[in-house]
Amino acid sequence: MITLADIVIIGTTSLATSALAYLAMRRAPSATTAAVNSTETCAVFLFDGEVLIDTNQEGEVFLTSFGVANRNWTTVYQVLSLRFPTMPIHQPDTPVLLPMILESQDAGSTSRLYIEQAGERIRLRLKETPIAPRSVTDLYRQRGWEGQLSRLRNAVNNAPYPIWQTTTNGRILWANTAYQNLMEACDQNITQDAQGVHYPNLFQLPGRGCLQRDRYRACVALAPGQETLWYEINAVRSELHTMHYATDINAIVQSEKTQREFVQTLTKTFAQLSIGLAVFDRKRELTLFNPALTDLTGLAPAFLASKPSLRSLFDALRDAQMMPEPRDYQSWHENLDALTDAALDGRYTETWNLPTGQMYRISGRPHPDGAIVFLFEDISAEMSLNRRFRADMQLNQSVLDQYTHPIAVFSANGTLHLKNAAYDAQWPMPDDIRDGAIQIDQRPEQITDLMHNISRWQKHDANGIDWHALTAQVAEIGPEVLSGCHVTLDDGTPRSIWVRKLPDGATLICFGINGSHAQLVKSAQRQAIGETASCSD
């Protein structure tokens, strides 16, 4: 029989049990609540020496997303060191340094990397703290980003030219495969200290500029005894970092070097010329000139070395009175483009009569790569000599024209070289040539040929002398004076033909009146010899 005391004991025990159960329920959250509140994920990597021998599911996802193929400490380091710069480049040699807890350098992230000793092996634990639980949409979006990231990573790492990233103070944070291969070629290695991993700076880079984008050239010397490589580096700056893209320009640098050497060779050659040279590039800037240009124009070498434009050079020549003053300089100045076009076609040639009495010949010629070259030549002495020569010729011709007997001089090849007015009257040229219908340089050769003239004389011969014998006498190298022969022309005029040999194989032929030949021939011979000498000079 249950007594009142038993009932009290049973009730007290039940109440105490219920109270303890209630307190336990308040203090211990449910498994579901704990899973929702736990946002920490962990990727684990287990290394045996340098080889990655095992990883969990999170670690596998991590390696796959970053495209890590060769699974060892070095490849994992290349990925993690971007976020954990102080991660050792090689495994720690002694357990004394372990465990190591490294904080990520990501902005707004609380990720940590634990490096721990696991028996004789090394274990890495990467603990990430996402901002919020991810939905299915976020997961799909992340997979898309991961694919895009993989493509971009392959594009950068497989690029044939060096690419690297630096901090604002110039410290290299990351470098692609081409940069690392260049490091090996230069016998440079990655180093590490308490501040983290350090890539060697292969290029001497200028200080950080104010522009967001910058371009400059830099060279890197390979191992001793090997060549020097030249690169054009494009720097793209952001708020915290700078990306550098290097392009191989060895061919361009070598081409420029060859061009400079060629220009130096040309300069040395042009320095010996008396003709002034001015070479303008496709931009019409003076790129090359020789000392003769300064001598002929009087322009200062400093002005020419400043690469003046074509217009500036002609303006300077006008100011120095080293070119004729155009009637309308403004119009002439505007027509410089036409002058340039003519020079490109090789058609530009002008003769400048300067106020100083000098005479310059200016000509334009095309040059490679759209350039043009102007030649300045002092022809004052040449023109003076030509004037004197023409004056002497006119004087000698006037003297010959004073003789009333026909006189002609033929050169060694049988060309009519000189004749006087009496010869023209006795043996006139055809009407079209005499009237100027046919220019001198267009006349048929037989018009001034000795044999042709002899045939003309024969047509006007009334008594029929032996012209073939005379022709043979003229053609042969015989005595200096050939015997004269008498001929009566068809108009009844009696003539005696006298032939004399002159220097250089020339032949003098005189048509005189019977009895007056001796004095006539001697005088004409002296005059013809002087004329021939003048022509030879």
Architecture overview:
- The protein has 537 residues and is an alpha+beta fold.
- The chain has four domains: 37-128; 159-248, 2-Layer Sandwich (Beta-Lactamase); 270-378, Beta-Lactamase (2-Layer Sandwich), CATH 3.30.450.20; 385-536, Beta-Lactamase (2-Layer Sandwich), CATH 3.30.450.20.
- Helices cover 39% and strands 25% of the residues.
- It has 18 helices and 22 strands.
- The strands form five sheets. It has a five-stranded antiparallel beta sheet. The chain has a five-stranded antiparallel beta sheet with strand order 7-6-12-11-10. Strands 14-13-17-16-15 form a five-stranded antiparallel beta sheet.
- Strand 8 and strand 9 (196-198) form a beta hairpin.
- Helix 13 (380-401) packs antiparallel against helix 18.
- The longest helix is centred in the first third of the chain and has 24 residues, at 4-27.
- Its EC number is 2.7.13.3.
- One of its GO terms (molecular function) is protein histidine kinase activity.
- Residues 150-220, 264-331 form the PAS domain.
